[in-house]
Sequence to fold (204 residues):
Amino acid sequence: MESIIYTQRVDSVTSYQEKRDAADQRIVDFISACGYLPIPLPNKPQLVEGFLSHIQPIGIILTGGNSIVKYGGNAPERDAMDKKLIEISIQKQIPLYGFCRGMQSILDYFGNDLVDVQGHVAKRHQIIRDGKIDEVNSYHQQACIRLKDTSGLISVAESEDGVIEAVKHKQYPLWGNMWHPEREDPFHKRDMENLKRIMKSRRV
Fold:
């Protein structure tokens, strides 16, 4: 079975003076439902190359959770991890998919600004995707309104209030969307087909 590595959020547990890597079990369920073996990564960028050499994943997923530090987050190791994985994706042409925080990391890496947005936390709303109206979940407080021309990213979906909801890169195998595929019950066919398409992109 082909494997996909995925990131985890950082949770600070003050009562134990611990910082823990964690991920919603539904992420494992979603990746498995798409036919891949999900393998979580610790937030230790210095270990990534070792993981890749042993696991040789077909793709990378940047998951949700934790704001980027410069936008109020408190997990710099998460920022470093996402940056390292994006760099590896570009260098080795490994397909990378980011959702919510993961897409924010992609946006930030290529120099795009995030702004605070209203009405996008614990909501469902409509987006325009491929010229059609679709409905997605939403759990983010920050988003991108306009992509910089020099970023290399293309908007492929937007919400009615102008928030960019999905992007892809013109040159690299990088895609992102702001909704959480693992929080759909049942998993949406759209999201499952999208992940499979992304993971096959390097071999097309």
About this structure: The mean pLDDT is 95.
